[in-house]
Amino acid sequence: MHIEPIHILLADDDENDRLIFNDAFEEIKIKTVVNMVKDGIELMQYLQTPGTKIPHLLFLDLNMPRKGGMECLMEIKKLDCFKDLAIAIYSTSASDEDVEETFIRGANVYIKKPSDFEQLKRILTKVITINWQYHTSGLNRDVFLLNL
Amino acid sequence: MKLFLKYDFNKVCKAILEEQLEKLQLPYYVLGLSELEILSTPSDTEVKQLQEQLLKYGIEIVETPKRILVQKTKDAIHEMVYEKDNLPVSKISDYLASQLHHSYGYLANLFSEVTYTSIENYIILQKIERAKQLILTNELTFTEIAYKLNYSSVAHFSTQFKNVTGLTPSAFQRIISKRRNKEADTS
Description:
Structural class of chain A: alpha/beta
Number of strands of chain B: 2
Radius of gyration of chain B: 19 Å
Structural class of chain B: mainly alpha
Largest sheet of chain A: 6 strands, parallel
Number of helices of chain B: 9
Strand content of chain B: under 5%
Order of helices and strands of chain A: EHEHEHEHEHE
Distance between the termini of chain B: 13 Å
Number of strands of chain A: 6
Shape of chain A: globular
Helix content of chain B: 55-70%
Radius of gyration of chain A: 14 Å
Oligomer: heterodimer
Number of helices of chain A: 5
Helix content of chain A: 40-55%
């Protein structure tokens, strides 16, 4: 049975983190295609390159040099062509205020990054699975909020 | 001015289907929410045209028998969660098996294979989506929503809401209303 893979874009300046996320995606049973960018400036360039396939899901590190995750989130939310792009923000910290502010600014998912690989895999599986339901079952993405 | 909308899912879909099929001048008969019979033999180009037109509205032509059955399962769940005033009290597995004329075990396996999620989780997700919709219309209290969606108590409802979304129903309500105010300010 043909099932379209899920296109994921990951924006993170830390090479180690990118590798860990990539390993986690590979171990998840849902088929994914993962592209990566190294910071916010590269991210915005990537997204605005003509002909780029808009990913289903963007994982965005909150703390990056040059242009941080929050700044990118706000820019992306201003652009109408990305209204269907689900955005998952992640950070090592997560105060209730930060989480709420991120959601208000338009993020769909907030992940407090775990230190344990197995837990990361569980979290990513959950995000991808739920996002897939929104994508395939016509659910209202405007109210897709997930705090992990 | 802010307007809150309510949709009749069936009516919307039917209107779109009728519009598009008439545009292509295909004779048709709408059999139900997710079934359509074309009364002629359309050419491949016509089918393709129809497919492209419908995709714009998020309507997909489902191809394989397995996918059709999964889609029917989803429709039955959708109908159960959205159109019944109160969810059936009988076991959901019995309900789905009798609606779809297959054993629940078969339906459940197929469902996980195609959607990456279990029927149980899908029902919970749909119930929470309905709850979100009800929360945002501001017409019902959380207790009334819990009752309508067949939760044993408002505490049980809040716990499941938190499990699925990571947020309490009131945090969800606050965030969406702040987000909407913000959008109204900037546009």
